[in-house]
User: Fold this.
Amino acid sequence: MTDPHMTHPHMTHPPDRLRRFAAAERWVHHATALLMLVCLVTAALLYVPALSAAVGRRDLLKPLHVWAGYALPLPVLFGLASEAFRRDLRRLDRFTAHDRDWLRRGDRRAVVRAGGLERGVVPVGKFNAGQKLNAAFTAGAILVLLGTGTIMTFPDPWPDRWRTGATFVHDWLFLLVLAVTVGHLWYALRDRGALGAMVTGRVDRAWAARHHAGWLDELDRRAGVHEPGGTEPMGRSDAYPERHAPERPGEPPENVLKTPPDRS
Assistant:
């Protein structure tokens, strides 16, 4: 089967649109997001007294909350049938030196001019450290909420201290998940490139260079893309220089321009 990122080995013009997410990956994300939204909304209606009194219908809200919670792991389990999804899970599970650098740097969203594109100062892979931490937190939170929710839904086999502890953990973790989800949506709505990737599966080359330069290099290495008029693949580590030595003593490289941090 031909890799969708691969092109002719002697290709000189890189594509303007890159496939970031396959259909299965987008389906898993959308289904999980929908189920999480149902859980959060029904939890708020059950948990906040003012909302609970205004809406009522606990006989409908509680079963809906419980079944949506038990369904939360299903999209991921079905997604494991997709090779692209499994490949991205492995990416999310690995922390690299660039991820640690991205977390430490205050200018992590700054860019440099190189190869005709504005590239992020940190060559981030397909996912940055924040996205990896968010994925790890979400996966762990879902498992803990399932466990504590099960104790709350079927309390008879459990001692009092287990039921009390489960309720405490479940309620506070709900508030934490709500805060993280709101933050995730806030970042997504501010970044049209990331939002579009989850809708169409594709991103602009310029967006990839700014936000995930390491991933762009990886695609170019695999595709054997060459710079226009050049002979070396654009994906080589020296093809997108971040800090080349000056060609003549005392002169900065002409193709590197530091710009202010990206606020978009």
